[in-house]
Write a structure and sequence with these properties.
- This protein is of the alpha/beta class.
- The protein has 3 domains: 100 residues, Maf protein (Alpha-Beta Complex); 58 residues; 320 residues, tm_1862 like domain (pyruvate-formate lyase- activating enzyme, Alpha-Beta Horseshoe), CATH 3.80.30.
- 42% of the residues lie in helices and 22% in strands.
- The model has no long low-confidence stretch (mean pLDDT 93).
- It binds iron/sulfur cluster.
Length: 485
């Protein structure tokens, strides 16, 4: 347990995130200052802020003081800068105690690419890169990764306005539960009333399409995710697509369906996707090692992945994504290499390399004893292998995101061949465009870019609660998109 005191409790959670970079899953608890392991204070004197961190941990003592000119402009910016100063001071004191520097430095709770883009716009490229390295202690490797992504995203985000939105549909069901899963996805059983869920979705889609029409917005990209959307049978998929077509019209843009689990992909379903204009699908192995797939509770074999991929190609899909995870239990670099070699033979258009995140809700955490996990350094090596294979396939990194509790404080990176990037993924991860979500657990977001602000309407994760709330949710989304400025 790490006891943390700050004289600015409003930033306590953000400072605790810095401590988690070093202390991992150790509990961080607030302290009143009497008996604490870390103390972070912020004072102002003669026009300067002094953020001071003192840490007494693991039998060591470290102190760090950051001095910055005090800022007295807009309230939101004052908070941002105060918080940043305190986080950096905490990070540097803790770094001295623990003796290592996390690859993304003190960055937590912010997308590195978004921050870098904003800094480049405000300060120019050279100063932005300097600030990322000097102020935030981001490593040279990670800085190069973020810089490359910002460059690839630049034409995708150019001219983006509030007159468009992405549409997301959530199918929160899966064939089985993966042990690392922390999504509120449910294993589909014969007892599930899919008819009721699809009826609720149809109404949700009808109301959402009316809202976009009334707010004079057009659809930029469509994305059906989950869960595993292909747990729906061909008839159910056609019913969902009919509703989308009826209300949103014949959409001719980027249209992704995350098929995901290869064991749920059939020729018949792929024919339905093609008939309704889906342009991009995912076939996700996560690993091509049969023993790992069995260990993490995925109900498919590496052979199923290859069969599903071949079916998707035969159906005419020329934009197929595959997902892998670095750091799965029991895997080493050779296992990762084997996975990537088998994937390279299939030659997908894009590859997403995830780092295992140890979420509390997953079986891997609740039943940790049963799952031996690779060390952080090994996960980093696996990510390097993923990057090298993606480069070998002619791909470039085009989006990335980080989550809490990722092995080694690393990242998830999406790679794609030029022209095969997924606009929705970029919009979603960068908070670049508003998203109108349909379905249980869907998160509707309106992006107010000028204010760098995002407002959200979350749908209940529970399927019955969602179905009961469709009309009320639609009213909230309407207010967010039409009344809220
Ligand atoms: S396929 Fe994805 S959503 Fe479904 S259980 Fe596995 S990790 Fe969770």
């Amino acid at each position: 347990m790490v006891r943390l005191y700050t004289d600015h409790p409003v930033y306590a959670n953000d400072i605790a995130d810095e401590a988690r970079l070093f202390a991992g899953r150790e509990e961080i608890v607030p302290s009143d200052g009497e008996d604490c392991d870390i103390s972070i204070t912020l004072t102002e004197q003669n026009g300067f802020w002094r953020a001071t961190a003192k840490a007494d941990l693991n039998g060591k003592h470290a102190e760090y003081t950051l001095e910055r000119p005090a800022y007295s402009g807009e309230a939101l910016e004052v908070k941002r800068r105060e918080k940043r100063a305190m986080k950096i001071a905490a990070f540097r004191a803790l770094r001295a105690i623990y003796g290592f520097t996390p690859p993304w430095g003190s960055l937590t709770g912010i997308r590195p690419t978004r921050l870098l883009r904003e800094l480049i716009e405000r300060e120019g490229e050279a100063e932005a890169l300097n600030m990322m390295a000097e102020d935030f202690d981001v490593s040279a490797d990670k800085l190069a990764l973020a810089r490359g992504i910002v460059e690839v995203q630049s034409p995708m985000l150019a001219g983006l306005s509030d007159s468009v939105a992405d549409v997301y549909v959530n199918i929160p069901f899966c064939p089985t539960k993966c042990s690392y899963c922390s999504f509120p996805s449910k294993v589909r059983t014969a007892g599930d009333d899919m008819d009721a869920y699809l009826s609720a979705l149809e109404r949700d889609i009808e109301l959402g399409a009316a809202l976009l029409r009334d707010s004079a917005r057009s659809v930029r990209a469509l994305y059906i995710g989950g869960g595993t959307p292909t747990v729906l049978d061909a008839r159910e998929l056609a019913r969902l697509f009919d509703a989308l077509r009826r209300h949103y019209g014949n959409f001719g843009g980027e249209f992704t369906l995350e098929a995901g689990r290869p064991d749920s992909i059939t020729k018949e379903k792929l024919a339905v996707l093609r008939a309704y204009g889906v342009t991009r699908v995912s076939v996700n192995p996560q690993s091509m090692n049969a023993k790992t797939l069995a260990l993490v509770g995925r109900s498919h074999t590496p052979g199923d992945v290859e069969r599903a991929f071949a079916l998707a190609r035969e159906a005419g899909f020329d934009n197929i994504n595959m997902d892998v995870i670095a750091g799965l239990p029991g895997e080493d670099a050779k296992d990762m290499e084997y996975t990537l070699e088998r994937i390279a033979r299939l030659s997908p258009e894009s590859l997403t390399v995830h780092t295992l995140a140890l979420k509390r809700a997953s079986l891997l955490v609740t039943d940790g004893e049963a799952f031996p996990l690779p060390e952080a350094a090994l996960a980093a090596e696996m990510l390097r292998l993923g990057a090298a294979f993606a480069r070998g396939l002619g791909m470039r990194p085009y989006y990335m995101y980080r989550q809490k509790f990722m092995r080694g404080n690393l990242e998830n990176v999406g790679y794609a061949k030029p022209g095969s990037e997924c606009v929705y993924n970029v919009d979603m991860m960068e908070d670049a465009a508003s998203i109108l979500a349909h379905g249980a657990g869907g998160m509707t977001k309106r992006v107010f870019d000028a204010q760098r602000r995002v407002e959200r309407v979350p749908a209940p994760k529970d399927i019955e609660a969602y179905a009961a709330k469709v009309e009320a949710l639609a009213a909230e989304k309407r207010s967010l998109f039409l009344d809220f400025n």
